[in-house]
Write a structure and sequence with these properties.
Elements lengths: L1 E10 L17 E10 L5 E8 L10 H7 L3 H4 L5 H12 L3 E5 L3 H12 L10 E3 H10 L7 H7 L10 H12 L4 H6 L1 H12 L4 E4 L7 H4 L3 H4 E3 L6 E11 L2 E8 L4 E10 L5 E9 L2 H27 L1
Parallel strand pairs: 1-4, 4-5
Antiparallel strand pairs: 1-2, 2-3, 6-11, 7-8, 8-9, 9-10, 10-11
Helix pairs in contact: 6-7
């Protein structure tokens, strides 16, 4: 049996109004497939890379193009998804499983195949290596980016957001993992990760558009809401940056309960933002995660101020 370490890049609509909703809600359209074929010892046997010409999101979103370096001209020389997948399936061979970094690629692949009404029955088992990496190396109970993972194992990453480069980087990570153990325990690890990551208590998407993330985080309509448990009013406080598009905070209910609240932002081509609010139960691991994030943010700010004053 071989392992197919697969990575996809996909284009996205320019705005919500242009999102394809039938026959499937098309979050993105694949524009590049990259993969590395390895043997059972994770020795590289072959590579695969192909440009896919999209049918619906035919012009590259500027943000995606900047990340992937894929241009509109590149798309002219691609293959349609049915043809690209025909070549990919033949290249994969008969006996294989997929290894991916993250869970989005397989979902995107299935979504795109459904768009074309393609047979998905040939798709093999797939394993998200983020889960094994978290269990054996990072131990943070969260998703770690591939670039961050490469840095943690002391390897220089190939340029990210190229499908083949990302697949090669993922193969490199395999050398630092006990893959036999990880794959044997995968189902259990996956269940543990889902439990630790929590299922949100409530999700909501605001229809408002904001000029900045700061403006959104001062809007009572977004940051004040009813407690999903007792109905009391919740006030958000102590916002901490989780990453470039997410903030987390503590939601304090007027009846004394606390919640972990995440605000996720999407920036549109006109520079405006939309926001979603995701509410989690304040479990001990959530509190610890928030405290660590806040501490790191405070340390980074203190170091920054020290550099300014020393200059």
């Amino acid at each position: 049996m071989n392992y197919i370490v697969m990575d996809l890049e996909w284009n996205q609509p320019f705005d919500l109004r242009r999102t394809i909703k039938k026959p499937v809600f098309l979050h993105g359209e694949i524009v590049q497939i990259g993969a590395v074929k390895t043997d059972e010892k994770y020795h590289m046997l072959d590579t695969f890379k192909i440009i896919v010409t999209p049918k619906y999101y035919t012009r590259m979103h500027s943000k995606v193009s900047k990340l992937t370096k894929i241009t509109n001209d590149d798309l002219q020389y691609g293959f349609s998804l049915p043809v690209a997948l025909k070549h990919f399936r033949k290249w994969c061979g008969e006996d294989f499983v997929f290894l991916t970094w993250g869970q989005d690629d397989l979902g995107m692949l299935r979504e795109n195949m459904m768009l074309y009404k393609l047979d998905t029955s040939w798709l093999p088992d797939a394993y998200n290596l983020q889960i094994i990496f978290d269990d054996q190396i990072s131990k943070e109970h969260r998703q770690v980016s591939l670039t961050d993972a490469m840095d943690r194992v002391g390897e220089e990453a190939l340029i990210a957001h190229d499908a083949l480069n990302d697949a090669r980087n993922t193969v490199c990570i395999c050398r630092y993992l006990d893959m036999e153990k990880g794959l044997q325990e995968y189902s259990e690890l996956q269940s543990q990760m889902q439990s630790m990551n929590n299922q949100p208590v409530e999700k909501s998407q605001t229809a408002k558009v904001y000029g900045s993330k700061e403006a959104a985080l001062s809007d009572p309509e977004l940051i004040e809401f009813s407690c999903p448990y007792c109905g009391g009013k919740v006030f958000c406080r102590d916002f901490v940056t989780q990453n470039s598009s997410k903030y987390i905070c503590i939601g304090q209910c007027e009846n004394g309960d606390e919640l972990l609240v995440r605000f996720k932002f999407k920036k549109w081509p006109d520079g405006k933002y939309t926001a979603s609010r995701i509410i989690y139960e304040m479990k001990e691991e959530n509190r610890e995660y928030y405290i660590n994030k806040k501490r790191r943010a405070e340390e980074a700010r203190a170091a920054y101020l020290e550099r300014i004053h020393s200059d």
